């Protein structure tokens, strides 16, 4: 909530003359809103009160500082990107995987997660990874081939 005082002799009160008209509560509220928007660039939610004071008006205004509750679209868009990608490459997913965090002292947090994919060759794998949600959001993906080790 912001508070602003607007006096009868304000430059926004009206044209200068010998006898200025009295600043109305409505005009005082409008002037306060204009000033707050100009000062903060925030959207005004509403004027909560206008009270006369000794030399003008006291105007209280509500403004939204930030969005604390994300919209449904903000929440669902990343999930939809994953669903679209999985829908396209689902036949090649062996294990969708999981995020990874370092578990030993000094371990580098360079690998954020893993998935296990099956493809005929590296080119086919790279085609499957095209459009992956991580790369679409500016991340990187490194692909490694799983090598079978013969047991002794």
TrEMBL record:
Q: Which residues lie within the region annotated Disordered?
A: 1-25
Biological process (GO) annotations held by this record are: gas vesicle organization
Spell out the InterPro entries in the cross-references.
Gas-vesicle_GvpO
Q: What is this protein called?
A: YCII-related domain-containing protein
State the species of origin: Nocardia stercoris
């Amino acid at each position: 909530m912001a508070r602003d005082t607007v006096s009868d002799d304000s430059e926004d009160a009206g044209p200068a003359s010998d006898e200025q008209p009295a600043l109305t509560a409505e005009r005082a509220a409008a002037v306060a809103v204009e000033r707050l928007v100009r000062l903060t660039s925030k959207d005004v939610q509403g004027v909560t009160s206008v009270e006369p004071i000794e030399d003008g008006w006291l105007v209280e205004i509500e403004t939204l500082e930030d969005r604390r509750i994300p919209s449904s679209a903000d929440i669902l868009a990343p999930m939809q990107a994953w669903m679209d990608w999985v829908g396209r490459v689902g036949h090649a997913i062996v294990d969708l995987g999981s995020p990874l965090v370092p578990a030993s002292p000094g371990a580098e947090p360079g690998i954020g997660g893993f998935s296990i994919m099956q493809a005929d060759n590296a080119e086919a794998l790279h085609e499957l990874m095209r459009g992956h949600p991580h790369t679409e959001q500016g991340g990187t993906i490194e692909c490694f081939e799983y090598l079978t080790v013969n047991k002794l």
